[in-house]
Amino acid sequence: MTAQEHDKLAANTQGLTHFIGRLLGELKFAPTDIDSLGTKKLREVIEQTGNDTWQLFNDLQSFNPYTKSMRLKLGKTYDLLYNQLLPKRVNKNKIIFGIQGGKGSFNEEALSFWQAKRAQNPFKVKYLYTTEKVLKNLHEGNIDYGLFAIQNAVGGVVEESTYAMARYKFKIINEFQIVIRHTLMKRKDVNLSNIEIVMAHSQNFRQCKNSLEKKYPNLRSVIGQGDLLDTARCAESLAKNTINKNTAILGPKILADIYDLEIIEENLQDNQNNLTTFFLVSR
Fold it and tell me: How many whole angstroms separate alpha carbon 232 and alpha carbon 125?
């Protein structure tokens, strides 16, 4: 055969076998007390390919011009098979939405806006607080759709969404905008003069930067970590006394009603046409 014919065949024999062997090795595919015959054969592949040098493996994958397409096809086939194993609907009676925010968040407001323009099919909201958790749950098949903010007219790109989107595959179902209005609020049992910090999502601070500097220059801005990236989660934590009670929250006005907070001032956004863009996504 010609060298070209040889390389085409080798990509799907030698190249594939070595790639699978290395893959299983990286997976720490260890023997067990209940190994089947097929499992033992996979162990043989690991032992055969794992004894070769990394240089040999790299050369097999790099210098054969057909192994790259083999690996890409393998990856697409994995994705297809993985998705076929997930349910088309998590709950046959309700559509499950996972959103970036908590109860009372701007994300919940955005979901309500989107739902109001469509037939009211029964649905349930999972409050996932971060875009990372939304896309992770979507990938794992725990939700049917995900919703998260991607950009604001003043604050720019939502960085946590950008980094999360780089790690997952998804389909954009809809892109839409709503006007965001920011309210400053505190616990009713705390005097305004005792407020030391303002807690919110980083985007909230960007959107209210000038107003906060002008009206509340002595308040320190704090961005939460983990689930506390979400302003609604911050408000919940303030109400439950799990963060410093001398904290103000900068976010949706409805949080004051949900968590029995006192409004200090409304409409602190620098731009009154403060549009934020959201993605509604599926697997």
Answer: 14
Tallying the residues shown for the chain, one arrives at 283
Quick one: CA dihedral 216, 220, 224, 228, positive or negative? Answer: negative
pLDDT tens by residue, 52-102: 999 999 999 999 999 999 999 999 999 999 989 988 889 989 999 999 999
**pLDDT band (50, 70, 90) for residue 149:** very high
d(CA 138, CA 130): 13
* Domains defined for the chain, CATH in brackets: 3-85 (no CATH), 95-180+278-282 (3.40.190.10), 183-271 (3.40.190.10)
Q: How many other CB atoms are there within 10 angstroms of residue 257's CB atom?
A: 11
What tens digit of pLDDT does each residue of 102-116 get? 999 999 999 999 998
Whether the Cβ atoms of residue 249 and residue 235 lie closer than 8 Å to each other: yes
